[in-house]
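FORM 7B: Structural annotation worksheet

SECTION A. Query
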Amino acid sequence: MKRRSLFVLCLVLPTLLSLSVQAAEPTAALIDKAASLYAGLDFEAAADLLDQALANPGNSSEQLVRIHHLRGLIQGSLGRYDDAKKSFAVILALRPSFRLGSDVAPRVRGPFMKLATQNPPRFDMGILPPPTAVVGKPLIFTSQVKTDSLGMARKLIIYYRRSSGKYSLASAELVGKGEYRLSIPAPLWQGSADKEPVSWYAVVEDENKAQLRRFGDELHPLVIDVMARPLVSEGPKPASWYEKWWVWTIVGGVVAAGTATALVLTTTGASTGPHDFTIDFQ
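SECTION B. Predicted structure
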């Protein structure tokens, strides 16, 4: 019984290993194989490979366009026009200027051109970083999903770092058109490099973690200058004794009194005795 079980396991194991390798196959290789199968009119097998390619995480927007281009052609050739339109809609959302080749059959070209003439809105999303990073305060990124008629965007990921260290990440879930704020607390971004700017880049992903939109990349990040912590005001400095108004008022009064006395003594000649005079301190 044990030998029989071992024999069955030996038969199944190569199949499982083959499926595992196939599932991990890079998207570019899957697309190329699907294109060859499509050219050989093996539409179903080509469609299966494209489904595997779509499930691979980390696909670029260019790869998405290639996948949905082939997928639309295959579904149209099989007469599945609704599925073909869904793929063509993704292409036009990512690349509005995309057009099918002149060699495409009219029955496949028809659904595509019908969508294209309707001028479907392009997927559009923007990110506004803070103008400066202030020590002691969080970094707040404001993003806005302006147009996403197909509901493709699911997550915004911002990668950031100081100096030449590893990138850290912060993410926000996206649930449709609107404005989103992503705040990175000060202790997470500051580090010890007080004079180094903050380097960052961002990726917008769909449900399969495909990259719908990128803002910079790891080798070409965007930069935010860092401003030192603003000084805390301690209030107005107390005036020194010689800056106070009443000191100089008294000094002025004393000087005026001395001057008046001298004048009186000078004009009265040899007259002696007390004299009356007035000093105005206004």
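SECTION C. Observations
The chain has a mean pLDDT of 81. Strands lie at 124-128, 133-134, 139-147, 155-162, 168-173, 178-184, 198-205, 211-215, 222-224, 226-227.

SECTION D. Sign-off
Analyst initials: ____
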